[in-house]
Amino acid sequence: MDSEKTFSNKNNLKVLHEDNHIIIVNKRAGDIVQGDKTGDKPLSEVVKSYLKEKYNKPGNVYLGVVHRLDRPTSGIVVFSKTSKALPRLNKLFQDKKAKKTYWAVVKNPPPNESGELVHYMKRNSKQNKSYAHKNEVPDSKKAILDYRLLKKLDNYYLLEIDLHTGRHHQIRSQLSAIGCPIKGDLKYGFDRSNKDASIHLHSRELKFTHPVKKELIHIVAPPPSDPIWDAIMK
Fold first, then answer.
1. β-pair partners for 209
2. Are 18 and 24 within 8 A, CB to CB?
3. Contact by Cβ (8 Å): 71, 32
4. How many whole angstroms separate alpha carbon 83 and alpha carbon 86?
């Protein structure tokens, strides 16, 4: 994927919500939220360029990264436009006061139509991978999510997931651990990758109280357009 090419068109930026303190965008699979060793242009810089142009701002534009999504994942990402809102947003996410709901398209049906998954996650930084253990192991962190089966497709199953903890690769690892690898997620047990290197994991919905205005923010992000997501949205 040519990151510079995909980022060059500002119309690719899908803004879901914007006010004086916050901007929320629908991240495409393949975009990185913050700069990393790849040197690819991150979403944070694209948003800065968008704000600079929209408001004709001279000099540097302030933008705070509140949270991240894995590169192959799509969906809701929140940025702070002010230094006043950033620490409040950070605390809100750290204290689990932002309710995040994901959609995942998986290969196999889950053991039950709904349930809670509890694992102990251990991260391997060299592999950039996290392993889900049934019992506590040294240096592991407890990971909890709820899932519901939303839809059965011809060859796949759509799960809705509510996260209670925010561990590295948590959804990908926990679903793999119950025999439900996410479509395209070669790293966590799916048999082949998607052509565009995406995985069928989408940050679908977010609810939180605005850190300054104190009003409820409720965001729903449409999934990317491809044959499977399109079939789900029919």
1. 216
2. yes
3. yes
4. 5
Contact by Cβ (8 Å): 164, 96:
yes
DSSP string, 38-50: T-PPPHHHHHHHH
Q: What angle do CA 232, 208, 164 make, to 5 degrees?
A: 70
Query: Residue 179: which region, alpha, beta or left (left: phi > 0; alpha: psi -120 to 50)?
Result: left
Give the active site residues: 70
- Contact status, residue 31 vs residue 38, Cβ threshold 8 Å: no
What is the spatial distance between Cα 109 and Cα 178, in angstroms, rounded to a whole number? 10
d(C-alpha 163, C-alpha 118), whole Å: 11
8 Å CB contact between 180 and 113:
no
Residues in the chain: 234
**68-92 in b/e burial notation, b at 16+ Cβ within 10 A?**
bbbbbbbbbbbbbbbeebbebbbeb
What 3-state class would DSSP assign to 56? coil
Q: What is the pLDDT of residues 84-136, one digit of tens each?
A: 999 999 999 999 899 999 999 999 999 999 999 999 999 999 999 999 999 99
pTM score, whole prediction = 0.92
Neighbours of 198 (CB within 10 A): 22
